[in-house]
Structures are given as C-alpha cells and as structure tokens.
Design brief:
Order of helices and strands: HHHEHEHEHEHEHEHHE
CATH class: Alpha Beta
CATH superfamily: Vaccinia Virus protein VP39
Helix content: 40-55%
Strand order of the largest sheet: 3-2-1-4-5-7-6
Number of helices: 10
Radius of gyration: 18 Å
Structural class: alpha/beta
Largest sheet: 7 strands, mixed
CATH architecture: 3-Layer(aba) Sandwich
Shape: globular
Strand content: 15-25%
Number of strands: 7
Number of domains: 1
C-alpha cells in the first residue's frame, strides 16, 4: 500500500514518468496514511525504481520474453497499465490475503496479457522450488522480477532464492533492486524503526554488489543507479545531485550510499 501510494502520487504529477490509474484505488486511505506517517517521505527513489523496472520489462518483452514471473508482486498493476502483448504470460506470486485484496480491487478490470496468480509464501522453500520448476518448464525465455523484495532478506535467504531461480530451466533473466551497505545503514537510520515495528526489518545490502549473485548462477547484464537515473529525469534536489555523480557499478560496494536496479542473466 505504501508503494502504491507513491505510484498514485507520481501518476497525478504533471509530466509523470508513468501512469498507474489503479494505484490510488489499491493504496486506499490506509496507503496514503502510511506514506504520510513514515519518517522517510521522499519518493524519488521509489518512482525511479518503478521507472527502471518498467524499462527493463519493456526491453525484455521486445526481445522475446514469453513469461514474466513477478515475485512478491504486491499491489503492482503492470499487467493492467503497461502495453503488453496479449500472448505474454504474466505470473504473480505473493501471499494469499494480499492477492485476494488485489483481485477484489481489480475485479472489473481486464489485463493486457495472460495473468496468473499463485498464492504462496516465498519463505516456504520447498513450495517455491516446486512452483519455479513448473513455471520454468513452461517458459522459453522467462524474466523474473522482484521489485522491492531483496532488501528484506538475509544474505543466506537471498543466495538460496538465487539458487532456486537459477535451477528453473526457462528463467533466463532476473530484474532486482539492490542497495550498498552504506545505503542500507542510512535507510535503517531514517526509517528502520518504523519498519521494525511493522515486522519488516531491512537486512540485505551485500558488499559485493551485483557480484553477490555470481556464485549463485547469475551475472550482471545492466546496472542502473537510482540517483544517476533520477538526476537525468530531473527528480533530485540540489544536494542529492552529489549522489548522482557516483559511477554506475557492477562491482564491490562499500560505505557509499548507492542503490540501483540490476538486470541479471543466468550463466
């Protein structure tokens, strides 16, 4: 609901980077209250993240992706709001109650492509391996999407998830967002208490950066810095533009506050 509230605000902004006509409905009054109450209120990073995932998804579909597997799909409405081919298979995986709420909220809407929802707790490794195997057999060129998920995992959990995705035959690429240890520390300081109270502590900011996933079967194809992208889109305040001067990085991350969206390829 928090993320949907930010998408709703961007949709109403003149010159918006994307339009999500369903976000306000999905966020509801509670989503707006959460976004207003949280200590961290600056939405440029969330908006830029959504923009970059849209860009990667569009490029992969144009390149021939036949299945999108959206892990921890949340209240994402891309199958409804994006121009997608009718024959594309879009699969959402998330908790039963969340998907039930979303399904009810969008019951009168029609997705642009084939849409399947799988009710699953991704923490259940055996169950997710079964689902990944089944979907991986169906896909020839599948793209996995995990927007906003990885930061809530431990390093061991992230590695196991990467291993399980790599084992699925048709999963070729994976789009995910990542933060450096420096940004993780900053985010914990600014909003960690709010998220701890909600039972969703921030955990994952690997020193290796995208290279963390190498031993687990995935290599970086493209890495886009949130700050640099946002600067190019004229979303940043003057002092935040300093962050935008930091270089894109496929390598080791350290104390600098870096966040980005990564496109990984199996191999």
């Amino acid at each position: 609901m928090w993320a949907a509230a930010y998408r709703a605000r961007e949709t109403e902004r003149p010159g918006a980077l994307f339009r999500d006509p369903f976000a306000k409905r999905l966020a509801g009054p509670r989503g707006q209250q959460i976004a207003d109450k949280l200590t961290f209120k600056d939405s440029w990073a969330w908006v830029t993240r959504t923009y970059l995932f849209d860009r990667f998804i569009t490029a992969e579909v144009e390149a021939g992706a036949d299945m999108i597997v959206n892990l921890a799909a949340g209240l994402d409405a891309r199958p409804y709001r994006m121009a997608l081919p009718e024959g594309l298979a879009w699969v959402e995986v998330d908790l039963p109650d969340l998907l039930a709420y979303k399904e009810e909220s969008l019951r009168s809407e029609k997705p642009a492509c084939s849409l399947e929802r799988i009710r699953l707790d991704l923490a259940d490794r055996g169950a997710r391996q079964t689902v990944f195997e089944r979907l991986g057999r169906r896909a020839k060129r599948g793209l996995v999407v995990s927007e906003g998920l990885m930061i809530y995992l431990t390093a061991d959990e992230a590695g196991e998830l990467a291993d399980d995705l790599a084992a699925a035959p048709g999963f070729r690429r994976w789009a995910l967002d990542l933060v450096s240890p420096g940004l993780l520390k900053m985010l914990r300081k600014k909003m960690g208490a709010d998220l701890d109270r909600a039972g969703a502590p921030l955990k994952f900011g690997p020193p290796e950066g995208p290279g963390f996933f190498g031993p687990h079967g995935w290599k970086p194809v493209e890495v886009a810095s949130l700050a640099r992208t946002a600067d190019g889109l004229d979303l940043l305040s003057v002092w935040m533009r300093i962050l935008a001067k930091l270089p894109e990085s496929n390598g080791t991350q350290g104390s600098r506050p870096w966040g980005g969206v990564c496109l990984l390829e199996k191999g």
